[in-house]
Amino acid sequence: MEPSVVNPALLIIDMQQGMNQPTLGRRNNLGAEVQMQHLLNAWRHAGRPIVHIRHISRTHGSVFWPGQPGCEFQPALSPLPHEHVVEKNVPDAFAATGLERWLHTRAIRQLVIVGVITNNSVESTARSAGNLGFDVSVVADACYTFDQPDLSGRLWPAEDVHALSLSNLAMDYAKVVETEEILAQFTAG
């Protein structure tokens, strides 16, 4: 995050109660929510724009099906009434949601992305943001994922899936940073 940029938006992706379902498997970054809370508090204190992104599934029976408790935001990361909420039906928060227009209307060119799942909605959204010309930072310790099987059936640990996803993003789409680096910008400027 460049100190001269005064209005970066914090995008919090899919921090819904359904992400706590044991059926999703083992995850990495058990402290990710605490890091997200630190960032959310800093953004709120500074009066910077915050976007809460919620996944609404098109698959009947999903924990993210409309009206299910899994769709609700986790209490510690719930939006305040004045904070923007985007609902999406696919991993990419820019796909058919109006998010790009909302950001452009407010002259927001810089995004700080946190949330879940690193190799799904976080990566998809960050790739689109980078392709659309936004200056994107993904906060590694404020994202997490789950163990993931590959097509041959090998189960990859969440730590490896997370690391590879962030490496993919760092090649062309985003800067990969830690919470501490972002919070330092609040005290520097």
UniProtKB/TrEMBL annotation:
Residues 9-181 form the Isochorismatase-like domain. CDD domains: nicotinamidase_related. InterPro entries: Isochorismatase-like_dom (IPR000868), Isochorismatase-like_hydrls (IPR050272), Isochorismatase-like_sf (IPR036380). It comes from the Bacteria. GO terms for molecular function: hydrolase activity. Keywords: Hydrolase. Gene3D superfamilies: Isochorismatase-like. This is Cysteine hydrolase.
